[in-house]
């Protein structure tokens, strides 16, 4: 029973890590876009 539970836990952990990386990538891209827009607005006015 314990040998069957370990791979499932490892698969879950891998999926969570992938999701965290994806969230970090999306958040960083959105952050860069917001900063770029702010800089453009400041320099234009």
The parts where pLDDT drops under 50 for at least 5 residues are none
Structural class by helix and strand composition: mainly alpha
What's the tally of helices?
1
What's the overall geometry? Answer: rod-shaped
Main sheet overview: none
Q: Quote the beta fraction.
A: under 5%
Whole-angstrom Rg: 20 Å
Mean pLDDT, as a whole number? 83
Give the count of structural domains. 1
List the secondary-structure elements in sequence, H or E: H
Estimate percent helicity.
Answer: over 70%
Give the number of DSSP strands. Answer: 0
Distance from N terminus to C terminus (CA atoms, Å) equals 67 Å
Structure, briefly:
The protein is mostly helical and 45 residues long. The protein contains one helix and no strands.
Task: Describe the protein's topology.
Layout (H helix, E strand, L loop, with lengths): L1 H43 L1
Task: Give a description of the structure.
- By secondary structure, the protein is mainly α.
- The chain has one domain (1-45).
- 96% of the residues lie in helices and 0% in strands.
- The protein has one helix at residues 2-44.
- The longest helix is centred in the middle third of the chain and has 43 residues, at 2-44.
- It is rod-shaped, with a radius of gyration of 20 Å.
- The mean pLDDT is 83.
């Amino acid at each position: 029973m314990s040998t069957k539970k370990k791979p499932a836990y490892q698969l879950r952990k891998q999926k969570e890590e992938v999701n965290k990386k994806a969230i970090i990538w999306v958040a960083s891209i959105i952050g860069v876009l917001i900063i770029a827009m702010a800089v453009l607005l400041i320099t234009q006015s």
